[in-house]
Design brief:
- The protein is an alpha/beta fold.
- Helix 3 links the parallel strand 8 and strand 9.
- The protein is globular, with a radius of gyration of 21 Å.
- Helix 2 packs across helix 3.
- The chain contains twelve helices and 21 strands.
- The structure holds thymidine-5'-diphosphate and zinc ion.
- The site of zinc ion has 8 residues, from loops.
C-alpha cells in the first residue's frame, strides 16, 4: 500500500481531528529525480489538529519503504549543525554520574536513533563516549561505519534486536529530528524504555510547533513529517511509556526546536517543563482558532511570492535558489514556481548535484556554477542556514528573496 489515511490521533487516539491547512497534492519532498522529465507521484498534503491533545499531524501516512528508499540528506554539510551537536553531547555528559564497571570507571555509552551519517555520534565520541547508531538508510549507515561508528542499518522498533555491542545499556539515547517521522510513537518510546539503562536519559529534539505557526514556516510540512509537536502531546506519549520529562530547552536550530529530556527513574522536574506547558496554553496553542489564522497567512505568502517572481522574470532577471532542501520543495511546489522561473538550485551536497527537484524539476547545481552565471536574486530555500548561505554568496552582489516568515527582498 502506498499510503493510508489517519483515522485517530497518534498520541491520544482521539477521533476529534480538524484540518487547518491544505497544501494540495504534492510530490515527496526528498524524491529527487535523475532526469528533467522524471515524473514524481503526488500525494495529499494536509494538516489536522487534535482537539484533545493538541498534536498537529498529517492526514495520511505514506509507506516508509517508499519515503526513505533513497534518502539524500547528509547532516555534516553544515557547520551550524555540527556545533549544535557538540553542544548537545556536552549537555548530556553533564547530567550523567560516573559509570563504574567491574570496579573501574568506564566510558559512558550513547546511542543515536536515526543517526544519519553519524554527525552527532562523532561529537559524543569527542566527548569520551562509546557510541552506536541505528539508521534505516543503507547509504547513510555505510557512511557512518566508514567513520568508525558501529551502526545498525534498521528502523527503530521494539521488535528488533540491535545487537548492542557494549557491556551495559546506553546511558543516553538521542532522537534528534526523527520523532516527527514516526507513526507509532508509543512503540518507538517503548523501545527506548527497553534499551535505556535504568538511570539513563532520553533526549528528543523536534522543531517546535509554536515557531512554525508564529513564523509561518509552512514549508517544513512534507510527507516525512507526520507530526508537529508541542510539549503537551510529547509529554503525554512519553508518560504512557514510563518516561518522565524533567527538562525542556529551546534551541534555534531548524527554525526553533525544543530539546526534551526524559528519564526512566524519577528526576527532579525542572521549572522549564511547567513554564513551557503554561506558555503553550496561555498563548493559544491548545486552541484550534490559532491555527485558522495561520493558514490565511500561508495563502498570502503564496500570492506575494508568485507576484515578485513573475515581476522580476518579466524584467529578465536571473533567479537561483540556494539549498535543495525538502522544505524548499514544499515552498516551490505549493507556490507554483517552475523551472522557467528559477534557473537552478545551488547545493553543496555532492549527492544532490546533477539531480532535479521533484514536481518543479529544477536542476540542482554546484556552488561553482554561480561563478559563471551571476544571479540577480537568490531565493532562500534553506532559510534556516541563511547566514551561512549569505556568507558564501555575499561577494556576488546579488539580492535575496525570503519567503519565510513573510515575503521580502533584501
Ligand atoms: P535542510 O534545511 O538541512 O533540510 P530539509 O531538507 O530538512 O529542509 O536543507 C538544507 C540544504 O541546504 C541541504 O541540502 C544542504 C544545503 N546547504 C548547502 O548546500 N550549503 C550550505 O552552506 C548549507 C548550510 C546548506
Ligand atoms: Zn490527540
Amino acid at each position: 500500500m502506498e499510503y493510508r489515511v489517519l483515522k485517530n490521533c497518534r498520541v491520544c487516539g482521539s477521533e476529534r481531528l480538524r484540518e487547518y491547512l491544505n497544501l494540495g497534492r504534492q510530490p515527496l519532498a526528498n524524491s529527487l529525480s535523475n532526469s528533467p522529465s522524471g515524473k514524481s507521484k503526488k500525494y495529499p498534503l494536509s494538516v489536522l489538529f487534535c482537539q484533545d491533545c493538541s498534536l498537529s499531524q498529517l492526514s495520511i501516512i505514506v509507506n516508509p519503504e517508499i519515503l526513505y528508499k533513497n534518502y539524500p540528506y547528509n547532516s555534516s554539510v553544515s557547520n551550524t549543525f555540527r556545533n549544535h551537536c557538540l553542544e548537545l553531547a556536552h549537555s548530556a555528559k553533564m547530567l550523567l554520574a560516573p559509570r563504574i564497571y567491574r570496579g573501574r570507571e568506564s566510558k559512558h555509552f550513547a546511542l543515536d536513533i536515526a543517526s544519519n551519517d553519524g554527525c552527532l555520534l562523532e561529537r559524543f565520541r569527542d566527548c569520551g563516549f562509546d557510541v552506536m547508531g541505528v539508521e534505516p538508510s543503507k547509504n547513510l549507515a555505510e557512511k557512518s561505519r566508514l567513520k568508525g561508528i558501529p551502526t545498525a542499518n534498521s528502523f527503530w522498533s521494539s521488535n528488533r534486536d540491535y545487537a548492542l555491542c557494549d557491556p551495559h545499556k546506553p546511558d543516553v539515547i538521542t532522537a534528534t529530528n526523527v520523532f516527527a517521522h514516526v507513526h507509532d510513537l508509543e512503540d518507538f518510546c517503548r523501545a527506548v524504555h527497553k534499551n535505556l539503562s535504568k538511570d539513563g536519559i532520553f533526549i528528543i529534539e523536534v522543531p517546535y510547533l509554536t515557531n512554525m505557526i508564529r513564523n509561518n514556516q509552512f514549508d517544513t510540512i512534507y510527507h516525512e513529517h507526520l507530526s508537529y509537536f508541542l510539549l503537551r502531546p510529547l509529554k503525554m506519549v512519553l508518560r504512557f511509556c514510563g518516561l518522565d520529562v524533567f527538562r525542556v530547552e529551546h534551541r534555534d536550530i531548524h527554525g526553533g526546536s525544543i530539546r526534551v529530556y526524559s528519564s526512566r527513574e524519577k528526576r527532579k522536574v525542572e521549572s522549564s517543563v511547567w513554564m513551557t506547558m503554561n506558555k503553550e496554553e496561555r498563548d493559544g496553542f491548545w486552541d484550534f482558532k490559532t491555527y485558522r489564522s495561520y493558514s490565511s497567512r500561508v495563502r498570502k505568502i503564496k500570492s506575494d511570492l508568485g507576484r515578485i517572481i513573475s515581476r522580476e522574470k518579466k524584467l529578465g532577471k536571473k533567479i537561483f535558489g540556494y539549498g535543495a532542501s525538502a522544505k524548499g520543495n514544499t515552498l516551490i511546489n505549493y507556490c507554483g514556481i517552475t523551472n522557467t522561473d528559477i534557473s537552478g538550485i545551488i547545493d553543496d551536497t555532492p549527492d544532490k548535484v546533477g539531480k532535479f527537484t521533484p514536481g518543479a524539476s529544477i536542476p540542482i547545481l554546484s556552488h561553482n556554477h554561480l561563478d559563471t552565471n551571476h544571479p540577480d536574486y537568490i531565493l532562500m530555500t534553506a532559510w534556516n542556514f541563511s547566514s551561512e548561505i549569505k556568507e558564501k554568496t555575499g561577494h556576488l552582489g546579488c539580492r535575496y528573496i525570503y519567503a519565510i516568515p513573510e515575503v521580502r527582498v533584501d
